Amino acid sequence: MVIETFRNANPAPIGERFKSRGRMLPEGLTYQCSWIDPKNARCYQVMETGDPALLSAWTKKWDDLVDFEIIPVQASADYWAQFQNK
């Protein structure tokens, strides 16, 4: 889970870059879905990768406009399955 906080609470530069360059994801990092909190200028994104270093490669392309918090998560079914196998 990625929480993006828009610098200066300004989404305009982010929208402009997205329109001109897209998400700029490295191969192996997949965007799943996102939600915007307009009041607090934040975006919550679910990204998927087997290589956490790819998240850093991606955030470097945006970190002049966005502050990132990355929280590792897993699907609920996968989480609970680990207890069933013990």
Explain this structure.
The chain is elongated, with a radius of gyration of 15 Å. A hairpin with a 4-residue loop joins strand 2 and strand 3 (42-48). The chain has helices spanning 12-21, 53-59, 76-84, and strands at 2-6, 30-37, 42-48, 66-70. The chain has 86 residues and is an alpha+beta fold. The model has no long low-confidence stretch (mean pLDDT 95).
Could you give the order of strands across the largest sheet? 2-3-1-4
Strand content: 25-35%
Helix-strand sequence = EHEEHEH
Structural class: alpha+beta
How would you describe this structure in keywords?
4 strands; 86 residues; alpha+beta; 4-stranded antiparallel β-sheet; 29% strand
Briefly say what this structure is.
The chain is 30% helix and 29% strand.
Map the helices and strands.
Elements: E1 2-6, H1 12-21, E2 30-37, E3 42-48, H2 53-59, E4 66-70, H3 76-84
Antiparallel strand pairs: 1-3, 1-4, 2-3
